[in-house]
Amino acid sequence: MPCPYFEPLEPLAEPSFCNARLPLIEQYGGLCHVCAEPFRSAETCCNHGYARGHCERFPSEGRNAAHRFSLLSQGPEELELLFIDEEEYAPAFTRQLHFSVSGNCLSEDDVDFCIAAQALAFCRSYLRKVAGAAGA
Fold it and tell me: Exposed (0-12), middle (13-18) or buried (19+): which is 79, by Cβ within 10 Å?
């Protein structure tokens, strides 16, 4: 459940959590958008969310939140996801998202850019690590 302000850009070559269950399947480095000027980050709380009180940059008045992604279905051309915006460990908002395998993109274009980046990271990691391993 990554932090709502985290834009994952690439899986880390040397992750801290090699055998852990990670919200985006792989541990990512990317940009933190908590401030007006984004900065590079790969902090634990970026990848795991619920950063209030754990991240020195997280706004003290910010809602204690995280994002969760679950695979609903997989077809040859599309992954269907459930996006869950959690607040204080409970669902606050849900939405279905669709990832085009051949287009390597989300079908929806009205999604917040951090949510979109997290959904893309989840889908790409899923195809690389889970679906690829199952087909091997």
Answer: buried
The rounded Cα 56 to chain-centroid distance in angstroms is 21
Task: Give the mean model confidence (pLDDT) for residues 72-82.
Answer: 96
- Give the phi and the psi of residue 9 in degrees, each rounded to 5: -115, -40
CA-to-CA separations, 94 to 81, 90, 115, in angstroms, rounded: 10, 11, 12
Backbone angles phi, psi at 35, to 5 degrees: -110, 170
pLDDT band (50, 70, 90) for residue 125: very high
Collapsed DSSP state (helix, strand, coil) of residue 110:
coil
Please report, as a single letter, which amino acid is at residue 34.
Answer: V
CA distances from 44 to 34, 41, 101, 103, 107 (A): 15, 9, 29, 30, 29
- Say if CB 97 and CB 83 are below 8 A apart: yes
Model-level pTM?
0.90
